[in-house]
Design brief:
Helices cover 42% and strands 27% of the residues. It is α+β, with helices and mostly antiparallel strands. It starts with a strand and ends with a helix.
């Protein structure tokens, strides 16, 4: 889910009920707001744009990676891609189309989740 904020978001945002939002792919953009009143000047502000996924319970690297991957792929797509990849390793099938993109997402999500978790542990102390 794409989210917008006027303040820099935390990577792991506690929701207050034991669950969290994981915010990633954080970028900034300049937004020009046109005034309602005629003759008034437009103003520009910085806005943060990022992806958000829900983490059920205390976050872990595995939960974060799982949530990010499932934001991009359905459960059926993941199972089929992994099954085809296993068959390709055994020489029974071709490597599934898009597997390298899927794998790159998993690797990137894991690296970013590891960083977020190390920062999260430091913030809790």
């Amino acid at each position: 889910m794409i989210t917008f904020s006027d303040t820099m978001p935390l990577s792991l945002l506690p929701l207050g009920d034991g669950n969290y939002h994981y915010n990633y792919n954080i970028t900034t953009e300049e937004v020009t707001e046109k005034p309602f009143e005629e003759g008034a000047e437009s103003t520009t502000r910085t806005q943060y744009v990022f992806d958000t996924v829900f983490i059920n319970g205390t976050p872990t690297v595995a939960k974060i990676v799982n949530a990010v991957v499932r934001e991009h792929y359905s459960e059926d797509e993941i199972q089929l891609m992994n099954a085809q990849h296993q068959a390709a390793l055994l020489g029974l099938d071709e490597e599934p189309q898009g597997y390298s993109t899927y794998l790159a997402l998993v690797v990137q999500a894991r690296a970013e989740a590891t960083t977020a978790m190390s920062n999260f542990v430091l913030e809790e102390k």
